[in-house]
């Protein structure tokens, strides 16, 4: 195999596929990156068995300055190879692989030789047909991921909760995640779509996918198989395994009524929670308390650490309706929820001191909801 290419273009694609490569894998070959040169261009592949990324650098794209002299394929140690490419001195680089599976990388006056492996030993990527596919706007997909993946569980004791449950029924898409202490659900109507799907995708996969959705990406093709999903982003294919099992019925967790409702500006409430958590983080339970006095039209936030001191802050709000209430909660859950809601005004709805409460954007309350379970303090 022999090719020359613009180093920046090559490194950009190499970094993309490296997102799927882990140094902790029990399969040694998966610490390598696969590089194949063929008639269509240069194909780079990385995988950790859960996530696989395959990216193509087209030879006919002049910005790549790619010239393939001899086709072929090789596996190279991803971490070392990436560091070498980063440090090459010139804008262009050349890679030559001989019969002995040694790769010679040259750029300017610099030359590296590293040992490779036979590409035939690399696992084959799954074949996913286009029979069950749809196209999503990239910005919408990015938003869905950011608004739901924040609530996935990090505990492997309940593997299904480490994923986001996505259902598509006709033109209605619903994505939901919960770790049993909090929940995030985003729904939307897809224009011109009539599809049916039900799958659970690991939160880690979606986090890596969202990092690849740059501003210049306009749309993403989604294809679903029995235990795999493929996201096609231009010339890059992102594969993820799916989690097997029946996701819990989360619809019954969301309250259908409330006794107290308050409308806040999300940034102002987030700033207040940040201040209160300065002390609560030093306490044993990491809890803040919210006291609502409807008759007096006041809402007060308390943070406390027996070792350090306490904080008390009167909160500003746009509207307050309902009964008096005192409730305690984990401020970190609240901060994450508010960050997901962005710059909007929000409505927080309560039913009882020990019942979950909800946060929704005031202007789009039907399509996005977050739920937080309070903390018992007595």
Automatic annotation (TrEMBL):
Function, as annotated, reads: Confers DNA tethering and processivity to DNA polymerases and other proteins. Acts as a clamp, forming a ring around DNA (a reaction catalyzed by the clamp-loading complex) which diffuses in an ATP-independent manner freely and bidirectionally along dsDNA. Initially characterized for its ability to contact the catalytic subunit of DNA polymerase III (Pol III), a complex, multichain enzyme responsible for most of the replicative synthesis in bacteria; Pol III exhibits 3'-5' exonuclease proofreading activity.
MF GO annotations: DNA-directed DNA polymerase activity
What the entry lists under CDD domains is as follows: beta_clamp
Locations listed in the record: Cytoplasm
The answer to whether keyword NAD applies is no
Domain DNA polymerase III beta sliding clamp central: from-to ranges: 136-249
Family annotation (NCBIfam families): dnan
Primary location: cytoplasm
Keyword Iron annotated: no
Checking Pfam families in the record gives:
DNA_pol3_beta, DNA_pol3_beta_2, DNA_pol3_beta_3
Tell me which SUPFAM superfamilies the record gives.
Answer: DNA clamp (SSF55979)
Keywords from the named record:
Cytoplasm, DNA replication, DNA-binding, DNA-directed DNA polymerase, Nucleotidyltransferase, Transferase
Checking InterPro entries in the record gives:
DNA_clamp_sf, DNA_polIII_beta, DNA_polIII_beta_C, DNA_polIII_beta_cen, DNA_polIII_beta_N
Q: What is this protein called?
A: Beta sliding clamp
- Which domain of life does the protein's organism represent? Bacteria
Lineage of origin: Bacteria, Bacillati, Bacillota, Bacilli, Lactobacillales
The record describes its quaternary structure and partners as: Forms a ring-shaped head-to-tail homodimer around DNA.
Record-annotated DNA polymerase III beta sliding clamp C-terminal domain positions: 252-375
Family statement? Belongs to the beta sliding clamp family.
Organism of this sequence:
Lacticaseibacillus pabuli
**Record-annotated DNA polymerase III beta sliding clamp N-terminal domain positions:** 1-126
């Amino acid at each position: 195999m022999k090719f020359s290419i613009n180093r920046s273009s090559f490194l950009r694609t190499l970094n993309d596929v490296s997102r799927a490569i882990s140094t902790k894998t029990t399969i040694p070959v998966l610490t390598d990156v696969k590089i194949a040169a063929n008639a269509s261009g240069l194909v780079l592949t990385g995988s950790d068995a859960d996530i696989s990324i395959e990216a193509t650098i087209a030879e006919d794209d002049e910005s790549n300055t790619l010239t393939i002299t001899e086709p072929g394929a090789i596996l190279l140690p991803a971490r070392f190879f990436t560091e070498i490419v980063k440090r090459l001195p010139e804008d262009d680089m050349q890679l030559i692989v001989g019969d002995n599976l040694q790769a010679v990388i040259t750029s300017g006056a610099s030359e590296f030789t590293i040992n490779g492996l036979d590409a035939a030993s690399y696992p084959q990527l799954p074949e996913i047909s286009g029979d069950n596919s749809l196209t999503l706007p990239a910005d919408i997909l990015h938003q869905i991921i950011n608004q739901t993946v924040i609530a996935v569980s990090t505990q492997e004791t309940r593997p299904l909760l480490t994923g986001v449950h996505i259902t598509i029924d006709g033109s209605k898409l619903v994505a939901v995640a919960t770790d049993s202490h909090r929940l995030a659900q985003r729904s939307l109507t897809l224009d011109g779509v009539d599809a049916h799907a039900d799958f659970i995708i690991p939160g880690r996969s979606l986090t890596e996918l969202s990092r690849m959705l740059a501003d210049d990406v306009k749309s993403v093709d989604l294809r679903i198989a029995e235990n795999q999903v493929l996201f096609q982003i231009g010339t890059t294919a992102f594969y993820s395994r799916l989690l097997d099992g029946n996701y819990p019925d989360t619809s019954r967790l969301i309250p259908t009524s409330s006794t107290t409702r308050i409308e806040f500006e999300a940034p102002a409430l987030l700033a207040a929670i940040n201040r209160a958590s300065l002390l609560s983080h030093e306490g044993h339970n990491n809890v803040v308390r919210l006291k609502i006095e409807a008759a007096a039209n006041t809402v007060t936030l308390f943070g406390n650490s027996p070792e350090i001191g306490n904080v008390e802050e009167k909160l500003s709000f746009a509207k307050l309706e309902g009964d008096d209430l005192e409730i305690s909660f984990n401020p970190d859950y609240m901060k994450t929820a508010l960050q997901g809601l962005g710059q909007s005004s929000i409505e927080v709805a309560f039913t009882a001191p020990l019942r979950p409460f909800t946060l929704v954007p005031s202007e789009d309350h039907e399509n996005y909801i977050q739920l937080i379970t309070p903390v018992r303090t007595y």
